[in-house]
Amino acid sequence: MKQILAFIMFSTIICWMMFAPIYKHVLITRQAILQQEVDYLLEIGASGQYGYISNNMIDQSKQRLKRFGLTTGSLQYEVSSTGGQLFINDGYRVSRGDGIALSLTYPYERLTAIDALIGISPVPEGQLMRVYGVRMSEYVE
User: Fold this and answer.
1) Where does 46-132 have alpha helices with state H?
2) Averaged over 114-141, what is the pLDDT?
3) What DSSP character marks residue 122?
4) What is the separation, in whole angstroms, between the first and last Cα of the chain?
5) How far apart (Å, rounded) are the C-alpha atoms in residues 130 and 77?
6) Are 28 and 119 in contact, with CB atoms under 8 Å apart?
7) Residue 60's pLDDT is what?
8) Of 7, 16, 93, 138, which has the fewest CB atoms closer than 10 Å, so is most exposed?
9) Is it the case that residue 35 has pLDDT exceeding 90?
10) From edge to edge, which strands make up the β-sheet containing 128-136?
11) pLDDT tens digits for 50-81?
């Protein structure tokens, strides 16, 4: 009986050690891709040509992220300015000196479920990873 229990515990630890680095790399890669996309949108949106982040820019962003295997329906964007505007579009341009803030969230999608094998509680269902960025607008009227 002790041998069976030792075998089960040993095999569980071996499985976790083999697969834990894989899902952690997936988490790190997803978060890096999302942060890169936020930085790119802020770079374009805060440029002197635009001064806003439009729905069209967000749709193009979703298509770029879809190529990395992310579900576009799960991506949630929040655009605001440091001046208090809740959403920025081409009708309202952020003037130079005010910042454009962008937040992007995406669910973990049960990537940490394997942690339950060794007693670590996985990320709760519905929890979202979040990336955030702020950039000062360069738009001059």
Assistant:
1) 55-66
2) 83
3) P
4) 79
5) 10
6) no
7) 95
8) 7
9) yes
10) 76-81, 99-107, 128-136
11) 888 888 999 999 999 999 999 999 999 999 88
**Cβ neighbours of residue 126 closer than 8 Å, sequence gap 6 or more:** 107
Q: Where are the alpha helices (DSSP H) in 50-138?
A: 55-66
Range 124-127, long-range pairs (CB < 8 A, 24+ positions): none
- What is the Cα Rg of the chain in Å? 21
DSSP character at residue 84 = S
* Sequence-separated (6 or more) residues with CB below 8 Å from residue 16: 114, 115, 117, 118
Average pLDDT of the residues in 41-56? 87
The count of residues in the chain is 141
SS3 67: coil
Cα–Cα distance between 81 and 92 in angstroms, integer? 11
